[in-house]
Design brief:
CATH architecture of the largest domain: 3-Layer(aba) Sandwich
Strand content: 25-35%
Number of helices: 4
Shape: globular
């Protein structure tokens, strides 16, 4: 019989780490992401083709890049997500009438930030009898990026040999999320000058989000070394 799986989406690395620890303490396999890249509906499909749920429980933050947690759950409902809405919850720091109506319409749970873990634990207890651990999951485990805070130096293809500094805030061998104070563009090639446990020091910018006047988040995927 397989382990239970929790899928967590939140653009705050600290929140992801805390929720990951919470579920792992309960014996769960945890997939944690800052945006819902693991969900097929994020790619714009019109119908989920998985024959089984991707996980046993899903938590999604309201505010994420490109898609809100409400929009994610609405897209899942339209496209035939195999996981019951009773095992889904929205994390939000703000409530208004429209958001609460959307939550009721979806039939999902919600938790205000900062999350009270005794309440979260009680809800998870209610969800667990609805989990069929004899049923294989719809997707195999994908590589998860672990939260970190590592200062790095790098150059960018569009800026010549100028050296930039930033912070890697999560990482896996195949890529990392970079907090940068200099401009980046989607599909820029980044050459990492700091020794990191990556498949290659050459990475491509897959997405970029401006978080301040001169601050950016960027998701980078390693490419074959040149």
């Amino acid at each position: 019989m397989r382990k239970r799986r929790a899928i967590v989406f939140d653009d705050e690395p600290v929140v992801l780490l805390v929720l990951k620890d919470f579920f792992e303490t309960r014996g769960y396999e945890v997939l944690a992401f800052r945006e819902p890249v693991i969900c097929p509906v994020y790619g714009g499909i019109t119908e989920c083709t998985n024959k089984a749920p991707c996980g046993d429980i899903i938590l999604a933050d309201y505010g994420m890049p490109t898609m809100t947690g409400i929009e994610l759950f609405q897209a899942q409902a339209r496209n035939g997500c195999r996981l019951t809405s009773k095992n889904k919850a929205l994390l939000t720091g703000y409530r208004d009438d429209r958001r609460m109506q959307d939550i009721r319409d979806l039939g999902i749970a919600f938790f205000e930030k900062p999350v009270l873990f005794d309440k979260l634990g009680s809800w998870v207890d209610e969800c667990e009898p609805r989990m069929d651990l004899s049923l294989p999951l719809g997707i195999k485990r994908k590589e998860v990026r672990e939260c970190c805070s590592l200062e790095i130096s790098y150059t960018v293809s569009s800026s010549g040999s100028e050296l930039f500094r930033g912070t890697a805030i999560n990482m896996s061998p195949s890529g990392f999320c970079l907090r940068a104070s200099g401009p980046l563009m989607k599909e820029d090639t980044v050459f990492v000058q700091t020794a990191l446990p990556l498949l290659s020091p050459v990475a491509m910018v897959r997405w970029i989000e401006r978080t301040g006047q001169e601050d950016y988040f960027a998701g980078l995927q390693c490419s074959p070394a040149r």
